Amino acid sequence: MDPPETQELVGKSPTDSSKQALPISEQDQAHQTRARSSPLSIFMEPFQWLQMLSSQLNPTFIFGVLVVYGLSQGFSGSFFKVVTDFYWKDVQKVQPSAVQLYIGLYYIPWVMKPIWGLFTDVFPVRGYKRRPYFLVAGVLGGVSALMVASLGKVPIAVALSCLIGITAGIAIADVTIDACIAKNSIEIRALAPDMQSLCGFCSSLGALIGYSSSGFFVHHLGPQAGIIGSFGSPTSFIDSIRVRDL
After folding, report:
1. Which backbone phi and psi does 95 adopt, to 5 degrees?
2. Does the pTM exceed 0.70?
3. Where are the transmembrane segments (predicted)?
4. Per DSSP, which regions of 117-245 are E strands?
5. Mind giving me the DSSP string for 102-117?
6. What is the pLDDT of residues 64-105, one digit of tens each?
């Protein structure tokens, strides 16, 4: 080997090879990994996920899931459970044994969910299968909540009927949005798990807020006025305008 070539090989330091540039694809992957691990990117991931769902599905459908599962079923449902216990005890002065019977009665609309679902599929109103039932759910729940909150102490039969109306409004809205979810899950199978995750997240978050705030409202407004917190079910009326009929 010639002396110049020997000097050139000896002159190279061992660290020179580590300083060589990585391939472009590896550099991109490393940059993306660092970007994903940043706090801002982690915070933005849920919003990007919602944006992805909105682009793949109808944005009004996502809005409907947020309202029905988050506000109506999650928040209003949990708020309703806490406030009605105090309402029966403090306003109606009912014994706990009777309250348990009433609780079973005003949850009958949830047992009837298959019937509500059958109505939405078999009995369309002016060609619409979903919107009219969102409207019925909102009006029924809203009128019932306002009656209990504003009429003072009413007979037990009237109060029980109003509470059944509130739960019926929540149940009808729930089964109607479930029908929309089922249809979208059949049409876009790849997003079916994402839709279920969105429903579970909205319901859990709404219930957490409802249980956390119900005690505050009962303490400051009283159990009867606190019934108005169940007024979240009339937001289904907004859904009837925003959600595309499926």
Report:
1. -70, 150
2. yes
3. 61-80, 100-120, 132-150, 156-177, 198-218
4. none
5. HHHHTTHHHHTHHHHH
6. 888 888 888 888 888 888 888 888 888 888 888 888 888 888
